[in-house]
């Protein structure tokens, strides 16, 4: 080989000083977006779960690939064997077929309404269930939304594969899809056959809350966190097919046009949860300033459906990392090793044929190189007339490329997390010059003692404080060693930053199925006892 693979992959290796520099630059970029009129749009959530809410709520989660519906029982302080504060019942999931994502919105929401009706009908089929007129419901989306009230949501422009108009009223669309299943659609249903009545004589939905899935993830852990002393949730993080975060921010740090609807309804509100949509191009400049994006990243960007729309997501999102690995593999095998295009496996040649799931389950597994090459010969086989075949060396090359791409992705997620926590004044990054970049000093003195995300339900007593990042998503939960890599890099960045006030540390805490559970939690919060997002004063 004229070039060693280790050297070939050098562009994917980002040192800790560069990552620290990236955190500093991203922090400033996020602050500017918060101050702008059209980014870092606040949700209508100014109050967080107390952990004491109780009741049963219907939760609907519209993900990128799956629709999930379940009843969420909030148990509060009740102790029920096998359940910690939350119990899920009658849960169902359906794959969202490609034609539904790309057809007219009415078809998608009619299908969603039918699926919801299945779960509601299952509940009412229980003889012990009382007949009810309406069901309090929470709905979460993997899509970016904006809202003036908790029970309304308008779709924002998205690059997530749904052919939906960007001004779509999501609440009304969902109610329209479910409406034909309600009592009011048929009036007296005494003469309706029992089987038909089961699906077409259902109670109405009372939409209590509509949220983004990262906000639901945040709320899911916030509901459970009272059992953990000196711990509070400061961020919701999803790394799956896409990537996004939710953080609490002070309304005073946001552009007045974004806070007006909130203050009109809640004049005493001081803070709100922000779904950042941090992968959009508006926050991407630091990646190019520091030379982090490689030629392969630019190639992927240029040939995707929305070039330049989400540069960060193209480097870390599960929808794209498989394709990025494919691009690098093809370049290595064909460009560096001289293997003819026609001899390579189709999945290394055709765009978006190599999935991140395949990398996670097969390539990143603990199989030896020999066994991996045997497996690849079956699942990633070359054309029948090819004179090339997988060997332990080529299998190792694929594994090294996938590892380089995902290791960088994990480090970029960590860097962005630390940068965002600096922006919200939860941690403090040393403003010293880094890599020739002189960062303007930010005062974290008194401001840092007024953390906007402290929860009334988790008062901080003495001792070090743990800042919890609630995470969910297929990549960070299931890709081998991914979460550990993110945590390790966060630790290194905070070590580089120096001691934090109050002995703060940042830990990733799993909020499995947070997009669904948190939706039920916030439906309960909006409908019952709620606790205001309060400031916890800490010593400096």
TrEMBL record:
Residues covered by the Hexokinase C-terminal domain: 235-523
EC number assigned by the record: 2.7.1.-
Entry GO CC: cytosol; mitochondrion
GO molecular function: ATP binding; D-glucose binding; fructokinase activity; glucokinase activity; mannokinase activity
Ranges of compositional bias, category Polar residues: 446-459
GO biological process: glucose metabolic process; glycolytic process; intracellular glucose homeostasis; mannose metabolic process
The keyword Translocase is annotated on this UniProt entry: no
Region: Disordered, residue numbers: 432-459
Keywords carried by this UniProt record: ATP-binding, Glycolysis, Kinase, Nucleotide-binding, Transferase
Domain Hexokinase N-terminal: 5-223
InterPro entries (alphabetical): ATPase_NBD (IPR043129), Hexokinase (IPR001312), Hexokinase_C (IPR022673), Hexokinase_N (IPR022672)
Pfam families per the UniProt record, alphabetical: Hexokinase_1, Hexokinase_2
Family: Belongs to the hexokinase family.
Protein name from the UniProt record: Phosphotransferase
